[in-house]
Amino acid sequence: MEDNYCIKIKNINKSYKKQKVLKDVSFDIEKGEIFCLLGPSGAGKTTLIRLIMGMEKSDKGDILILNKKVPNLETIESIGYTAQADALYTDLSAEENMKFYCRLYKVPKKERKNRIEKCLGVVNLNTDAKKIVSNFSGGMKRRLSLAISLIHNPKILILDEPTVGMDPLLRKQIWQELYRLKENGVTILITTHVMDEASYCDRLALLRNGRCICVGEPQNIIEENECNTLEEVFLKLGGDVYED
């Protein structure tokens, strides 16, 4: 049923100058699922995320979020977003960054302290809350960006390569939190080029040279294509996995 879908992508095309980046991409994301955009560098994942966020316009096709056409201010306010490039104020502390985004997202004053502590705890940054962000490592900045995306209890969480630079233990902790959010009804869209990480998701779309070559549950995709791994599926359906 239509109401089961949180995001609908319909025949999306996007070009930069004469280069086609996305070519007739279509798929739906159900409410309360973890959905993955999987593909190598240059496959079109980040471009598609920018279109979903309303940061750019497609040349052709439509994107609907909660049954409303993008861009739409009401739906954007329901989204938590972590981009590949961290949008942080590096001359402020982690806590000060969190307070700024609390005000931006209009988090009630009485809830801000608890929200900040909780979200920093998710990414294991509570002990670093007072430290200036310019002194953070790249991985710490990624973790802070993820904490910020959670600060306003979004209905939809869009994460572009969120675990890059994280150690295996912290990556496991982040995924545990994503599963908890899913159980609470949050819809999560994540991009990655890491094949084993994609297997943690409910469903995925395989992007290859701007085209969606397959959509479904990870194990079903593997079995239907008579392969042993998602990487083998890429090789079978889309040629060299690492080709741009």
UniProtKB/TrEMBL annotation:
It is an enzyme of class 3 (hydrolase). Gene3D superfamilies: P-loop containing nucleotide triphosphate hydrolases. GO terms for molecular function: ATP binding; hydrolase activity. It holds the Pfam family ABC_tran. InterPro entries: AAA+_ATPase, ABC_transporter-like_ATP-bd, ABC_transporter-like_CS, P-loop_NTPase. Keywords: ATP-binding, Hydrolase, Nucleotide-binding. Its EC number is 3.6.3.-. It comes from the Bacteria. Residues 7-234 form the ABC transporter domain. PANTHER family: ABC TRANSPORTER G FAMILY MEMBER 20 ISOFORM X1, ATP-BINDING CASSETTE, SUB-FAMILY H, MEMBER 1. This is Linearmycin resistance ATP-binding protein LnrL.
